[in-house]
Amino acid sequence: MLKKSLRINGTEKKVICDPETFLSDVLRKQLLLTGTKVGCGKGECGACNVIMNGKVVRSCITKMKMVPDEADILTIEGIGTQNNLHPIQIAWMIHGAAQCGFCTPGFIVSAKALLDQNINPTREEVRAWFQKTRNLCRCTGYKPLVDAVMTAAKLMRGEVTKEELWPKLPEGGSIIGKDTVRPSACEKVTGTWEFGADLGVTLPDDTLHIKLVQATVSHANILSIDTAEAEKMPGVYRVLTYKDVKGSNRINGLAFPSNKGDGLERPILNDKKVFQFGDAIAMVLADTPTHAEDAAKKVVVQLEELPAYMSAPAAMAEDAIEIHPGTPNIYFETKVVKGEDTAPLMESLPHVVEDDLYVGRQPHLPIEPDVGFAYFNENGELIIHSKSVALHFHALMIADGIGLPLDKVKIVQNPTGGTFGYKFSPTIEALLGVAAIATNKPVYLEFNMYQQITYTGKRSPFFMHLKMGADDKGKINALETDWSVDHGPYCEFGDLVTMRGSQFMGAGYKIDNIRGAGRTVCTNHAWGSAFRGYGSPQSLFASEQMVDELAIKMGIDPLDFRYNNVLREGDVTPNGCKPDVYALPGLLDMVRPCWTKAKETAKQKNQNSTDKKYGCGISLLIYGCGLDGADSSEAWAEITKDGVTVANSWEDHGQGADMGTLVMAHETLRKAGYKPEDIKLILNDMNYTPNSGPAGGSRSNVLTGNATRVACENLLEGMRKEDGTYRTFDEMVAENKPLRYDGKWTAPCTACDVETGQGNPFPVYMYGVLVAEVEVDLTTGKTHVDKLTIASDVGTIINKLVVDGQILGGLVQGIGLALYEDFEDLQKHTTLIKCGIPQIKDVTDDITLLYQETPRPLGPYGAAGAGEMPLSAPHSAIISAIYDACGVRITHLPAYPEKVLAGLKNLNK
Ligand code: FES
Ligand code: FES
């Protein structure tokens, strides 16, 4: 043990600690300064940054023996507090720079160190600094963070005041479309927004810490599990296997009726087989995480390895065995049948292109690893706290498996450091439930980044073959599609994501004749989970590349070709329904000047460059809001003495559910004179909040926004007097009027027919057009995105900061998808950096956001969603730009330098 005298945030502290302990653990667990977050735990993400003796250090890799005695340490808590914010924190709030907020304290600490030594940095200096201090952000796309530092510097130089900068809200007026700062911003910038691991520190002393025994192979029969040695290890309370699970030990994957599986493929604790790397075979419950981890190594699992099918084609091979015996590896199929048979048409059309395309297993890479805890409350209900973005779904999916009636399972969403969709599937909820039931004690489970990356769902890879034909006038007349979806071993939502192929291949264009066939394939690679865009980034990539190839083959400008073919009044989508609005011609007109300029810029640069080439590409971006068909959501509103309380389960990945709820409620309630500060929010706790459905498919702003609006309208109706004025709380009580009112909204939609792909699946769509400009280094094959310009139509903008943030963050994940990100190699793709997370150096600072606001007839106050459109196809514009620059078309993502070099070599043959 070591005794250290430290000066923490200006106060002398003595700590007794193990010399091998990391500074982050001492700060968080011994000194309870949980503002310092731990993401990667390996020095890659900067979430744990603190300033030690004037220098930024990553506290997660700084052992206490390396911390000098008397060291002066500054953490986020010492920079500013909720009642005394530092200018950097103020600037962070003004720019909406904290989305999930998990990276925020680390960035603010780094920014403080920079501004302490350079009060007037350039944007490039700020970017270089964050690269040096290794700060990663997965939500914002970095630009708002640089904006925030530039503003903070101005504030600190005294050139502006907070009052001048803080968004002015109209007295009594609407806050729709304004820069209102989200309710959670102040806690996020001060490090007081308590994520799961922060709450974990506050759990009672008898809490049991869980560590998993996980599979290190991808496919095997389990012969035996021996826990005897582990049970004897110090501090161990129980070692649990499938035998200890009281219920069916299966997650309910909510399979479609036409799914050939029963949807019950996924074990909670594996019993007969291992289906993928990382599967949980046993759980050790001990008094400390270290004791649990040590004991987990002593569990002996005997396996008989089986052939592992690591891709859809491998699992579809004739000699492949069934991964789930009794269920074929191809377990769901769907078709598109629209208009005339395309085979004879393709024969007759003068211009036809076809290609094989692939979009892979993009990893979500939130900076906060998965974490949660569970306990029984005094009513005998199991309370599970996690990062769930589908509270009521997840309760339904796990209740039978863990062996409790559904009404005894209540899930609460912790403040969440990003999910981007992986938490649409349950991850650790059932494990926590099993552990709490087996022990009747509070239990806590925290993944490290390795577990987060290797054992949570990933984007489902699509293997696609498309053929597209046009007539001599440049009109697309026929499309043929074929796609195989590698959904890993567990079926949950695999059928749904496969349907996206029929909805988004060819989306945005008038194509009268389509034939297509798609299938979901069970494999032994990572299970497929939702990821922002959910099937559209795969589908749109394929059809946008076909559109590009066709335009180029016909010698027509890619923008003009699109303009000639996009949906116009009366046209129908690939599903045969009219879209909500016809926004694309306007968006193409909006980007046309940028497109013309981009082409000219590339031409000029290319004249003076031999080893680097420049090019530009364009793509449509589209996604629907909602789960297919008659999706619905619920909320409630209650008048109180102090104002109105509004509740819903609008789960927050970090996108801004609090802001969305507040704006929807305020816009409705302001008719009765309520101001934003009169509205209290209760969000995402099944003990109080109704079933609003999951936060996925960009559905929340539309579905839960409408449900919140309806609840508030119903409250106003209850408050309304005959003269049109509204009763006060006291009058409501005096007249014995109900105080709480429910709201529900159901989309007037029909799911697509799996035999034809025809239907009307979404009430509202989001549209964008992106122009990407790139530089390709011909000697290294490296691509850099120099500039992005996007014109978006997401209906009425509900909050400008939130929508800007969603679009910037989505585009940057698109840069990652195009160039860097993958989770394919289980040995290599095991850290944030090795998986290709874009760092600030990889991301352009030159991003222009343009908006067209076409109010949506079915959107609350005209709004669509915003989260997924920006990641639906930015990678396609980037890939087309690479082709424009150097003539190499990368059809299998990501466009690693070696693929570009191989393409160049082929061209030169
Ligand atoms: S660098 Fe310390 S948590 Fe990532
Ligand atoms: S706000 Fe940066 S990781 Fe979420």
The geometry reads as globular
Structural class: alpha+beta
Strand content: 15-25%
Backbone CA Rg:
27 Å
Side-by-side strand order of the widest sheet: 8-12-6-19-16-17-18
- For the termini, the CA-CA separation is 66 Å
Largest pleated sheet: 7 strands, mixed
Question: What average pLDDT do the residues reach?
Answer: 97
Low-confidence segments, given as residue ranges, are: none
> Which percent bin holds the helix content?
25-40%
Q: What is the tally of helical segments?
A: 26
**Oligomeric state of this protein:** single chain
Name the hetero compounds present.
Answer: FE2/S2 (inorganic) cluster
Number of strands: 30
Could you characterize the architecture of this molecule?
By secondary structure, the chain is α+β, with helices and mostly antiparallel strands. Helix content is about 30%, strand content about 20%. It has 26 helices and 30 strands. It has a seven-stranded mixed β-sheet with strand order 8-12-6-19-16-17-18, with helices on both faces. A five-stranded mixed β-sheet has the order 2-1-5-3-4, with helices on both faces. The protein has a five-stranded mixed β-sheet with strand order 14-22-21-20-15, with helices on both faces. Strand 24 (about 630-640) and strand 25 form a beta hairpin. The protein is globular. It starts with a strand and ends with a helix. One FE2/S2 (inorganic) cluster binds near residues 45 and 48.
